Each structure stands twice: as structure tokens, then as C-alpha cells.
Amino acid sequence: MPSEPLPPAPLAAGEPDMNEIVGSHDLLLVTLDTLRFDVAAELAEAGRTPHIARHLPGGHWEKRHAPGSFTYASHQAIFAGFLPTPAAPGPHPRLFAASFAGSETTADGTFVYDTPDLVSGLAEAGYHTVCIGGVGFFNKQGPLGSVLPGLFHESHWTPEFGVTSPASFENQVARAEQVVRQLPAEQRLFLFVNVSALHQPNWFHLPGATREAGDTRATHAAALEYVDRHIGRLFAAASSRRRCFAIVCSDHGTAYGDGGYTGHRLGHESVWTVPYAHFFLDPAEAAR
């Protein structure tokens, strides 16, 4: 006989009920592409990323495991509802999940959708979905680079948002501000931003670094400080119309000589371990 569907797990204490949030809040998802957990945690602890840290629960990033080891794989999982997983034994209830019999991570507070992916699920719930791309998998310059942005009602990418632009994030934020301004006040928004500034090349974010010396863990940290200087504008735009539920995380990390490895799309701790946070953004804060 076929097994009975598992009942949903109860909502964990302190966890948001996404069935109350979806439909009443705007939603913001920011992936800090390639950001390592150790670098993010060190900078938050040292006070070097104050604009992000003020929103982190307790001022600290949560340590999680990435759902993939490079951008395309990880975002396919994220857009299917598989956000980075808490780095502790589970199962861990998810915020979003497709309707799937037998899922052990669908809880009472999980927003469940009957579409293949979260983006279309939110669209069916009345959200206007917007992608502001960063790395090449969002550049729409070929079939592969069109898959992920093609999930959204509206998508944006220019070379000025990409990995080679020293002003990539501030350019992305300016486009996000424009998108929000042009949207009818009553329209709910799901805004996704893939931040490319952490990705190689990032040497130009550290004063005194050179192209010849290349990217290092220190230039990666400098890139995060650059993002932090501008992310307040993104948070303000996302919450300018109503309360916003924000998810900020890395899709995967990257290695800078760790154990002899460089880059990502490989199975190293520096790649699999990522920072994660979710929190609310209030319009009153955005107005300050």
C-alpha cells in the first residue's frame, strides 16, 4: 500500500510563518555570490560591515550549508525552495516548498506552492517578480544565461552589473530603486538581486591591490565592505512601500588556496559553508 503523506511539522519557536507573510509583505532575496562564511563572520565581528550587521539576529550570521557548489546549481535549488541548510543535524523546516508528498521539511509555517518553482509560485500569489542579475548566469546573452532570469516577470542585466565592474553593486541598487519607484503602490513585489561584487575578479576593491597580484581572501573581504556601504539603499528601497521580509545569504563560497584549492564548483569547506540571515525591514527604518 502507498505510504500516507507525512503531516507537516509544527512551526518552530521564533520562526516566521510564511503563510502570514506571503501576501501581506514585499519580499527581498539577496544572494551575495561566492561569499565565504568565515570572511562574512569575521567582518561582522570586527564591525567592518555595520549596515548588514545591524539587521543580523544578534549581530551574527547563521552558519549554513550551500545547496550547490556553484551559481547555477545553487540558484536552481534556491528557486525550488531549497535555501541554504542550517549547519546542524536536521531535518530543518523550510520557508518555501513546492507541494510534494512525503516532504519532511515542509512545516506548518512553510509557504507551499503548486508550481515547479518559488518564483512562479509567488507570481500565482499575486507578486510581481523582478530579477536584477549579476554574474554571467543572469546575463541573458545566450540560452544558459537566460534560464534563471527567465523565471521572472521582469529581469535586468547590463555589463555594469557584472563581475568586471568596480561599481557593480551600486549600479544594481540604482536599478532596484528605479524598479520600486515605477511599481504601483498596491502591487506586491518579490525582488531578487544576485550580487556579483564578491566574485572574482575582486582585487580592485582593495586599495593598493593590483591585477597582477590577483584576488585574495583580503580582496574578497574588501568587496564585502564595498557591498555593505551600499546595501542600506537596497534595504530602504525594498521596504519603502510596506514591511518587507528579507533573506540575505551566499549561494556558495569560494577557495583562495585553501587546501590547495582555488575557486568553486568543488567540495571544500570554504565552498560549502555559507552565511545566511532572514529578517524584517520596516518602512519607518527605510525613511530614516
TrEMBL record:
Which InterPro entries does this UniProt record tie to the protein? Alkaline_phosphatase_core_sf, STM4013-like, Sulfatase_N
- Looking at the record's lineage, which domain of life comes first? Bacteria
**Which residues belong to any copy of the Sulfatase N-terminal domain?**
27-270
* Listed Gene3D superfamilies: Alkaline Phosphatase, subunit A
Q: Which SUPFAM superfamilies match?
A: Alkaline phosphatase-like
NCBIfam families, A to Z: fam_STM4013 (NF038075)
- The name under which this protein is listed is Membrane protein
- Organism, by scientific name, is Streptomyces aurantiogriseus
